[in-house]
Amino acid sequence: MLNLNLNRNLDRNRNLDRNCDRTNHQIDLVLQRSWWFKGLTLAIACVLITCLTMISAIAPSMAALPTKSAIKDPRVILRNALPIDSEVLRDVQKTLEQMPRQANLKRWSNLKRDIETISQTLTQNQSQLIEEVSGDRKGLVTEHLESLGTALVPLQEAIAIKDRNSVKALSEKALDYVGLVEADFIQAFPFEIPAQYAKLPQLKGRALVELTTEKGNATITVDGYNAPVNAGQFVDLVQKGFYDGLTFTRADENYYLQTGDPEGEADGYIDPKTGKYRTVPIEVRLPDQKAPTYGKTFEEQGLSGTLPVLPFAAFGTVAMAHPNDDANGGSSQFFIYLFESELTPAGLNLLDGNYSVFGYVTDGKETLDTLRLGDKILSARVISGAENLIK
User: Fold this and answer.
1) DSSP secondary structure string, 17-44?
2) CB neighbourhood size of 338 (10 A)
3) Where is pLDDT greater, at 159 or 251?
4) Which of 70-74, 110-114, 202-206, 385-389 has the lowest mean pLDDT?
5) What CATH code is carried by the domain that includes residue 274?
6) 342 and 206 in one domain?
7) Is 132 in contact with 181 (CB distance < 8 Å)?
8) pTM
9) In whole angstroms, what is the distance from residue 132 CA to residue 130 CA?
10) Quick check: is 337 in a domain?
């Protein structure tokens, strides 16, 4: 079994949350004891703000940490991670994603305006959108745009009658078609994989993998656009039946589940052709880069606190495990992240950039909630996207 530093990082995450709770409690007690402390607190806050402003002025090269909460919906993360450049589709996507919150706040006039804008935008740009895709995909994008238009009708009706309970499900259905249209826009794989890893299996696109366990099923959306080597390793082993019958050998029911450790002395996959371990490098993409970085963790690159394209922000994040002292020693063992922290801001997750995320559980959350140490994977199989695997 791999001796991973995952527990150490998760403990640091736990301690961060606990320390925040303890600090907040202590501040509350002080405020209750002395009314004049408010004035003192305000003065201190002003001094701190002034100091921070001066620091930012004299250190412009310091990376700015994100100030808003991380996106925790894996479907939103995966849509944002698609390598496309279409302002029209991105605007439609973001507007639809905001609709459930708008409905909860009863902003019906905004919702009415937004749904009308979406319909007009798609109608006015339909011909242009179809022209922008390659010839063999024009039929697909036409079909998906028509399905999207159809899905918008009941959403518009729900908004008209102020049916708050229906907006979330209907907007998510429309977003499914937006994601299909966006995927249609990907003309070719967006970057070249470094030569030293070119002989490894590569997933040049996306695939769906269904895990069947003793407690139920879960579906993983595997993202080869942002981690093709790690995703390719995983999908190739799934196709070989490597994970069938394996158990979850490391687990913390509040943080993660890990599997992929074969029986015997080996800690990973041994290629029968060479008799050697087949390992994959750490592989993480930054939002402003076209291709992932390889070979070094964010910590080693001085990028700690940076939010990658595929972050540990969603319950059900799937990542490759690796040994304590070798970020490029991942092989077959992977773990599923089971934690959502309200106290950890985006970009401050201590796992981000130090492990290769290659997908998310997009169906079967209830199964993850029940899995424990020793539970068995009955089978793992590719249910779509197998054609994107290059060996």
Assistant:
1) HHHHHHHHHHHHHHHHH-TTHHHHHHHH
2) 20
3) 159
4) 70-74
5) 2.40.100.10
6) yes
7) no
8) 0.82
9) 5
10) yes
